[in-house]
Amino acid sequence: MQIKILSPLWGHEHLEYKVFLDKMREAGYDGFDTWIPQDVNEKKLLFDYLQKHGMYIVTHQHEAKGSTFEEFKSSFLTNLYSCAEPGPVLINSHTGRDYFSLEQNLQLVDIAQEFAEKTGITVAHETHRGRVGYSPQMANEIFTARQGFSITADFSHWVCVTESMLENFAGILDEAIKRSRHIHTRIGFEEGPQVPDPRAPEWKYAVNHFLNWWDRIVALNATSKCKILPLTTEFGPRPYMPTIPFTNSAVADQFEINCYMKDLLNERYIQYRN
Q1: DSSP letter string over 125-183?
Q2: 3-class DSSP state for residue 226?
Q3: For the packed helices 40-53 and 17-26, what is the interaxial angle rounded to 10 degrees?
Q4: How is residue 189 annotated by DSSP?
Q5: Torsions phi, psi of 222, nearest 5?
Q6: Are 21 and 9 contacting, i.e. CB atoms less than 8 angstroms apart?
Q7: Fewest C-beta in 10 Å: which of 19, 21, 37, 74?
Q8: Confidence at residue 274, expressed as pLDDT on a 0 to 100 scale
Q9: CA-to-CA distance for 186 and 193, rounded, in angstroms?
């Protein structure tokens, strides 16, 4: 198994597209975790860039929409096929809605599974607020109903939703770790999805919890048939990043923190980096 460390586009949308791509490659990233550009020229630039530099991509399905559930289903599948175009490591999907019924969300999971079987591209459903896996309890309903349900582990949402370090969800967490095929390496805490700065000593307890969970995901994937495990450094910009009152200035630099996380992950999992 190889670990590939990816950069999100999120927080860098203000940059010219090639400037963003060059910046992340020069910073030492293996590739990108991003949505497919709507602009035709940017789309071509991205696809060509991946080929030229031998970089990796996890594509991001987050745009499914519709005024009815049937419209949403159709949009969801259309977006999955769009995400498949560059031959990604996998597709990270913001699947469903927390207000859809279990039956409706299962229909979307089944659509994704059929798509994966046809294309050979894994769809990892992100444990994200407002989506199908927004809480451990909701995700567990899907785990019980669908053996093939794989996830992108973004446990920063779960610690926020449950106001805990998941002490009361050990069994569900164990199952989630077994099903994790991608990690968003953002560190949350009991009252929010992102600590202000993971380098600060007051957040060491949270960092240690998350590192322990990630270690378990890496170990399990290493003993499976997984060839590539993508890790995305996904600390976000303001307002995800807390700001200083009256100034709206971020308390820390997003890019600097994500590079810190990249280096931490590279060192911690060095045996999987060659």
Answers
A1: EE--TTSTTSSHHHHHHHHHH-TT--EEE-HHHHHHHHTSSSGGGHHHHHHHHHTEEEE
A2: coil
A3: 20
A4: B
A5: -65, -25
A6: no
A7: 19
A8: 76
A9: 8
Look up residue 220 and give its two tokens: 């399990």
Tokens of residue 271, six digits: 């045996």
For residue 5, the Cα-to-chain-centroid distance in whole angstroms is: 12
Instruction: Give me the CATH topology for the region 2-272.
Output: TIM Barrel (3.20.20)
Residue 198, preceding peptide bond in cis (omega within 30° of 0): no
Strand partners, 60: 92
pLDDT for residue 225: 83
Beta-carbon count within 10 A of 220 CB: 15
User: Do residues 228 and 4 lie in contact, with contact meaning Cβ atoms separated by under 8 Å?
Assistant: yes
3-state secondary structure of 215: helix
d(CA 207, CA 101): 34
pLDDT in tens, 50-88: 999 999 999 999 999 999 999 999 999 999 999 999 999
Spell out, as residue ranges, where the chain has pLDDT lower than 50. Answer: none
Structure tokens at 34: 């991003």
Residue in 125, 119, 148, 123 with CA at minimum distance from that of residue 138: 125
Classify 165 in phi/psi space as left (phi over 0), alpha (psi -120 to 50) or beta: alpha
Q: What is the pLDDT of residue 97?
A: 96
Tokens of 53: 């530099």
Task: State how beta strands 91-93 and 180-184 pair.
Answer: unpaired
